[in-house]
Amino acid sequence: MDETLDRPWVEDLVRATIEEDLAGGVDVTTTATVEADQVSVAEFVARADGVVAGLQIAELVIRLVAGKEEVEIEHSVADGATVKAGDVLMTVRGKTRQLLTAERTTLNLLCHLSGVATLTSRWVAAVDGTGAVIRDTRKTMPLLRSLEKYAVRCGGGKNHRMALSDAALIKDNHVIAAGGVAEAYRLVRKAYPDISIEVEVDSVEDAVIAVESGAELILLDNMPVQQLREAVEKVAGRARLEASGGLTLELAREVAETGVNFLAVGALTHSAPVLDIAMDLQAA
Q1: Quick check: is 200 catalytic?
Q2: Over the chain, what is the mean pLDDT?
Q3: Is the Cα torsion angle 264, 267, 273, 277 positive or negative in sign?
Q4: Which fold has domain 125-270?
Q5: List 93, 139, 161, 186, catalytic entry
Q6: Which of 171, 186, 229, 253 is catalytic?
Q7: In 3-state terms, what secondary structure has residue 25?
């Protein structure tokens, strides 16, 4: 199991999503229409082409809802797999009541994470061969950051910092507060001598100032392609460069071909459409 999914708080998060659906009660529709001892087989089937992420989370939902009831789960594919519409992703055999009660929570997480992985894979394919790396941002849904960043990895992308303490990112407001790019960099380096520092700039001139101040990673914010090329030329390999802001899938390759090292794409997590996945119930 990926270490992200093997943390205790992941189970706490999943339990909270189940409680949100049950709200301390029961699934009244399922309880009324399904006999307590009825057993069924549920197939989780892709309704669209994409990349899968979150199957282990889906399994955790089902097992928590089933409780002590016996449930058999078989994965037909693994997270990170590319699937076609109609492919069976996972098959579950268990009490019908538990399967139906778990259905929506399971699909909410599985469809969302697979959507993130699918969108990421499209960005990765768009820049293939350029040497540029697709990275996510902290523009994630509250409490879902680790799971969404896991999904980004399933789609072939890389993760930016997870939390504010992992690395420093000097943004425009920090620069204003500190009185300039060089001063902001100096203050962070003095306070945290060993931490990785990235500096956000919106001009080629500030990019040069940042690298001459010692920055090893520079975020080029909302720069058009020609300005990105100029920044790459002026920095001349003295720091790694990351394009961010205003990026689109259609322009991804053109941006990557400027020579930047990274494309930071908030849309991977904040705007990914779900991958359509359904649970099809069958008699056992």
Answers
A1: yes
A2: 95
A3: positive
A4: TIM Barrel (3.20.20)
A5: 139
A6: 171
A7: coil
- Active-site residue flag, 221: yes
**Euclidean distance between CA atoms 135 and 35, whole angstroms:** 48
Tokens of residue 131, six digits:
């040497």
Q: Which fold has domain 8-118+272-283?
A: Aldehyde Oxidoreductase; domain 3 (3.90.1170)
For the chain, give every domain's residue range: 8-118+272-283, 125-270
Instruction: Yes or no: say if 215 and 199 are a contact pair by the CB < 8 Å rule.
Output: yes
pLDDT digits (tens, 9 = 90+) for 178-227: 999 999 999 999 999 999 999 999 999 999 999 999 999 999 999 999 99
Catalytic position from the list 79, 136, 200, 206: 200
Mind giving me the DSSP string for 87-139?
Answer: -EEEEEEEEHHHHHHHHHHHHHHHHHHHHHHHHHHHHHHHTTTS--EEE--S-
Q: Among this protein's residues, is 149 annotated catalytic? A: no
Selected catalytic residue, list 104, 138, 161, 186: 104
Q: The whole model's pTM is what?
A: 0.95
Is position 171 annotated as part of the catalytic site?
yes
Q: Is 63 a catalytic residue?
A: no
Q: Which residues pair with 158 in a beta bridge?
A: 135
- Alpha helices, DSSP H only, in 2-95? 8-22, 28-33, 55-66
- Are 8-118+272-283 and 125-270 in the same CATH fold? no
